[in-house]
Amino acid sequence: MRDLHARLDVLGYRCADQGETFGDATRSLVEAFQHSRGLPLTGEVDGVTFERLEEAGWSLGDRLLYVAQPLLRGDDVADLQVHLAQLGFNPGRIDGIFGTATAAALVDFQCHRGLDESGTLTRATLAELRRMIRRDADGHLVTDALDLAMATARVMGPVVICGGGPLVNRVARESATLGETRNLGDLSCQEVATRANAAAASLVLSFEMKPDLDVIHVHYWASYRSHSRRGERLASALASRVSHGADLPRVEVTGMALPILRETAMTTLHIEHGEATEAALGALARDIALVAHHRE
Q: How far is CA 98 from CA 51, 76, 221, 228, 290, in A?
C-alpha cells in the first residue's frame, strides 16, 4: 500500500490516506488515474492498472530505449513517439510500446542527423532529439495526418472476431457472408493480438457480455496524445445504425486504452453489451457485420 501511495504521489495524485490504508481517498485517486489512462473506473488496482502505474513512472531519458523482449512500455516511450512524430518520422501508433515501427522511425531520425543508426535511444540521440524539438517542431504529429488519411480508406485483410458472449458466433456468421472472417473465440488478449497482427487483419471486433448492462458500450483506441480516427468513425457509424433499430438499447461510444485496443496494431472495437432477446441479438449482429464490412 505504501508503494501504491508513493507511485500516486509521484504522479501528482497526493493521497490523504496514510500508511497501509486503502480508503475512499485512495480509491478516488485510483479512479482519477484510471480515467487519465482510458481504463475502466473501478477504483481497484488490478493487474492492468498496476502495469500502467509502473509505465507512468518512466520519464524520457531514464533508460535506454530499444527493441527488447518483452517490448519496453512506458510514458518515456510515448514521449519519444510524440517527439519523432512532431519531426515527421512515423513511429506508428502512439501507444507507449517500443516496437519495430518506433525503432524504424528512430533509425530514420538518426540517419538524418548523422548519428549512429542503432535504433536505440542513447543519450546522444536524445540530446539531438530535444535540440530539434526546441528548434523545428511545430507541434503537429505526422501520425495524426496519416491516421486522418486512413480514416475513410478501405483496408484489406480479414475481420477478426473474438471475446465472449452470445454475439461472438452470431457476428462471425453474419460477417462471413460479407467477407473474409476469422473467429478466434475467447482467446487471451495477447493471443488475439498476436494472431490478428500476423494476419494483417483489417479490423478486430472484441465482445464482452455484462449481464447487468442496459446500454451498449463501443470502445475504440484513445490514449496519450492520439486516438484512432477510423475506430471512432466505425464506432459512430455503428451507434448511428443501431439507434434506428427496434428493441435495441442506446449505444455509448468512448475512446479508451483497454489492453485489446492497445495490443492490436489495426483498428479494433471492443463492444460490451447486456442480455437481450434472440431477435435483438440477431439484429445487432447484422448491424455490426455490415458496419465492419463498410456496408453501413
A: 15, 10, 17, 18, 34
